[in-house]
Amino acid sequence: MPQSATRRKRLAPSEIEQSIRRFIEGCREPVLLEPGEKPIAIKPQGYSIEPRGDSCVLHAWGENGNLVRRITAIAAQSPGKLELRARRFGGEELTLALLDAACKAGSLQRQVGPGQFRERLRRILAREFSEWTIEHLAASPDLGRSLSGLYTRGVLRRGHHAWALIGAPADAGAAVCNQILTFGLIWLDQVRRRQLRDVVSGLRIFLPHAHIRATANRVAFLRRGKLRFCVHEFDAKGNTAALDERDFGNLNTELLPCRPPAEMAEPVAACVRGLLEVAGVEAVFGMDGLLSLRVRGLPFARAGSGVMTCGLDQQRPLIEEQLPRALTLARELARWRSPNAPDRLNPLYRKYPESWLESQVRLDVRVIDPTLRAAPLYTHALSIAGADRGIIDLLACDPHGRLTVIELKASEDIHLPLQGLDYWLRVKWHLDRGEFQRQGYFPGIELSPQPPRLLLVSPAVEFHPTTETLLGDFPPAVEVERVGVSEDWRRELRVVFRKYGAGRLA
């Protein structure tokens, strides 16, 4: 069989699991790579893989982040590289790669695809901007300046006028294209610092036609001033067109209805009471009215008026006679998912850190912001906000009815500011149309028409160094605040700094 990548037949979930485990065990330096994200080094105690339904759930964690994806198939395999078809939990499909960083064939520095797109973009620029000089067109990563190798970046110059530019290839996928603005703003800032003798007009973004909407909607709300932002779409033949930003800003978003909490009937109520007696178990009602029982953010049971389910990977109906089994599970979770856990590498301790941070905020959101009401507090109210974002969002209000969007991230994430802006835009959209109270949110509270506030909450040392740069391009209407919490937030949630807007930390 040739040593080049080979297509694999459709495998059962258990076979996918075995293939992944064998590949990892055969690597000297296994690394998980997702387009647009930092590579995660796979350690023996830093990942889990298990069949679930018609796929496998892969969970990997390490210094560069925390990632959970559904693996649906083995796409291809070659020496030092295993390509995986995957789905984010929101449904979006993508391709991941397991690489052996110690193997030349699996080197992270291999940049054939981006190099091809760089030359294609050069031809587009030469045709569409024939009176401009193309400079600094590069597709290699610059990790020191937080620039990804998934995008081609450069400068257009004419006399003492210049444009920064960035583009993504047609096969990059939705996730990579939707993240381009983060790196585009970082690149724009660097161009402005370098071209001190030139007038930098702004940023031009080149994207395939199928993946322009998310970026165009964000660009429509960015700070203007003297800077301009232009989004160009291109097709398979290289034809391009500059988009009219007036066509964007109409967001494709849905506010989920908030149903009243279900009233528990016996024997479900008895089961719920028994589980809540276990230290660490918390009860959170969802927008569907069902009760979620969790241990420091990790759900293990759900209850409605007359039915209850229990389990971690797959929940099954629970009857009163089976309460001892559920109590055993809750106590085991409380033991391992604790700031005093005997093994902090245990998967139960490492799973869903954002959900754990959310549970700490839920104990008293006024620790994060004393001006907020303690309740109600909503999680993932919008249909666009799911586990695929990697961020927990909460929606609260103050005594005057002004809404506050709270974005929680337990580890460094370069995309946090723009993902926060994305959610803020949608909350404002529904607020302006009076939809929150029509859908059952904030009962008995008159909401203020003022634009929402935005809080970005993360451990103090986990804010990415580019956060201030990105916030500098936010519109004045977005009242944003960074809230840094202590490193021992699992034990006690304490605020160690607050910073408004794009102000630099001392």
Could you describe the 3D structure shown?
It contains 12 helices and 25 strands. It is α+β, with helices and mostly antiparallel strands. The protein has 4 domains: 6-106, Distorted Sandwich (Protein Yojf, Chain: A), CATH 2.70.180; 112-247, Trna Endonuclease, Chain: A, domain 1 (3-Layer(aba) Sandwich); 268-349, no CATH class; 352-500, no CATH class. Strands 1, 2, 3, 4, 5, 6, 7 and 8 form an 8-stranded antiparallel beta sheet that branches. Strands 9-10-11-12-13-14 form a 6-stranded mixed beta sheet, sandwiched between helices. Strand 2 (30-33) and strand 3 form a beta hairpin. The chain is globular, with a radius of gyration of 24 Å. The relative contact order is 0.08. Mean pLDDT is 86; it is low at 1-8 and 105-112.
Give the averaged pLDDT, no decimals: 86
What's the total helix number?
12
Head-to-tail CA distance between termini: 59 Å
What count of structural domains?
Answer: 4
Could you describe the largest sheet, including whether it forms a barrel? 8 strands, antiparallel
Q: Quick one: how many beta strands?
A: 25
Radius of gyration: 24 Å
Sheet/helix structural class: alpha+beta
The helical percent reads 10-25%
What is the beta-strand fraction? Answer: 25-35%
Oligomer: single chain
